[in-house]
């Protein structure tokens, strides 16, 4: 009987081990990354669906003039969301395990990014005005805050500095925040501040450049 009891105990431990591994696997960075990719893809799809073909009562050139502001704002918004997507992969690569705080800060980032299509459509419909650009700048600044929180939590968890330094993140947020009052003075200058942030983040981080150089270096 004791022998049978030990067999059942060993069997229980063997059965429990895959369950424990499966439970741990639920909080892997790969699942976080896949979920974020899906949400960002939906956000981009929602934006492009707002671009409609004008009716036949407007000529081709007139239709292009009507849709041009929406297309340009869509391009700027697409680049910004794409920048978050690329750098999100760089950020999550430093993780081995996801914490509760990282999950919720990542959800806050995705929520703030989901507001960009609404702000983009607002500018396209209402035109370039002080209020519309100030609203757009505020919506662009919102993901910057959640990104800094997520980046800080991941840095504490992984003990690895993010590929994009905190100085770059703070400077970008200041430019976004500065575009809000600037829109009341000059909406076009405010748009220029947002474009500067996009150009700043289009440049690859130094850490990524160095890693790519090392991987492409021929073996000695």
Describe the structure.
By secondary structure, this protein is mainly α. Helix content is 82%, strand content 0%. It has one domain. Helix 2 packs parallel to helix 4, helix 6 packs parallel to helix 8 and helix 7 runs antiparallel to helix 8.
Compact summary:
It is built from nine helices and no strands. It is an all-alpha fold.
What number is the mean pLDDT?
80
Please state the structural category: mainly alpha
Helical stretch count? 9
Strand content: under 5%
- Low-pLDDT runs: 16-25
**Radius of gyration, taken over Cα atoms and rounded to an integer in Å:** 23 Å
Q: Please give the domain count.
A: 1
Tell me the major beta sheet.
Answer: none
Question: What is the CA–CA distance across the termini?
Answer: 64 Å
Give me the count of strands: 0
Shape estimate: globular
State the helical fraction.
Answer: over 70%
**N-to-C series of helices and strands:** HHHHHHHHH
List the helices and strands and how they pair.
Blueprint: H1 2-25, H2 29-49, H3 60-92, H4 100-114, H5 116-126, H6 130-158, H7 166-185, H8 187-202, H9 206-216
Helix pairs in contact: 2-3, 2-4, 2-5, 3-5, 3-8, 4-6, 5-6, 6-7, 6-8, 7-8
Keyword list:
220 residues; mainly alpha; 0% strand; globular
């Amino acid at each position: 009987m004791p022998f049978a009891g030990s067999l059942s105990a060993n069997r229980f431990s063997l059965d429990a081990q895959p369950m424990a591994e499966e439970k741990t696997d639920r909080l892997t960075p790969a699942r976080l990354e896949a979920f974020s990719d899906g949400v960002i893809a939906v956000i981009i799809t929602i934006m492009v669906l707002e671009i409609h073909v004008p009716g036949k009562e407007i000529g081709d050139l007139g239709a292009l003039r009507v849709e041009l502001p929406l297309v340009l704002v869509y391009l700027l918004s697409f680049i910004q969301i794409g920048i978050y997507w690329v750098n999100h992969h760089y950020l999550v690569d430093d993780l081995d395990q996801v914490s509760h705080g990282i999950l919720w800060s990542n959800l806050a980032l995705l929520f703030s990014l989901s507001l960009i299509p609404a702000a983009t459509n607002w500018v396209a419909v209402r035109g370039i005005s002080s209020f519309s650009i100030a609203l757009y700048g505020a919506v662009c600044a919102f993901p910057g805050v959640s990104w800094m929180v997520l980046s800080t939590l991941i840095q504490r968890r992984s003990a690895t500095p993010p590929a994009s330094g905190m100085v770059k993140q703070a400077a970008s947020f200041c430019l976004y925040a500065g575009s809000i009052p600037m829109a009341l003075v000059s909406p076009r200058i405010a748009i220029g501040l947002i474009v500067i942030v996009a150009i700043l983040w289009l440049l690859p981080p130094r850490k990524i450049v160095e890693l790519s150089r090392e991987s492409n270096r021929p073996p000695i």
